[in-house]
Amino acid sequence: MHAQQIISTHPDVKGQINDALIRCIEECYDCAQTCISCADACLVEENVTELRQCIRLNLDCGDVCLATGATSTRRTGSNEELLRSMLDTCAVACRLCAEECEKHAPRQEHCRICAEACRRCEQACQDAAGSFATH
Amino acid sequence: MHAQQIISTHPDVKGQINDALIRCIEECYDCAQTCISCADACLVEENVTELRQCIRLNLDCGDVCLATGATSTRRTGSNEELLRSMLDTCAVACRLCAEECEKHAPRQEHCRICAEACRRCEQACQDAAGSFATH
Amino acid sequence: MHAQQIISTHPDVKGQINDALIRCIEECYDCAQTCISCADACLVEENVTELRQCIRLNLDCGDVCLATGATSTRRTGSNEELLRSMLDTCAVACRLCAEECEKHAPRQEHCRICAEACRRCEQACQDAAGSFATH
Amino acid sequence: MHAQQIISTHPDVKGQINDALIRCIEECYDCAQTCISCADACLVEENVTELRQCIRLNLDCGDVCLATGATSTRRTGSNEELLRSMLDTCAVACRLCAEECEKHAPRQEHCRICAEACRRCEQACQDAAGSFATH
Question: Which of B121, C135, D47, D70 could form a disulfide linkage to B27, CB 3.0–4.6 angstroms apart?
Answer without folding.
Answer: B121
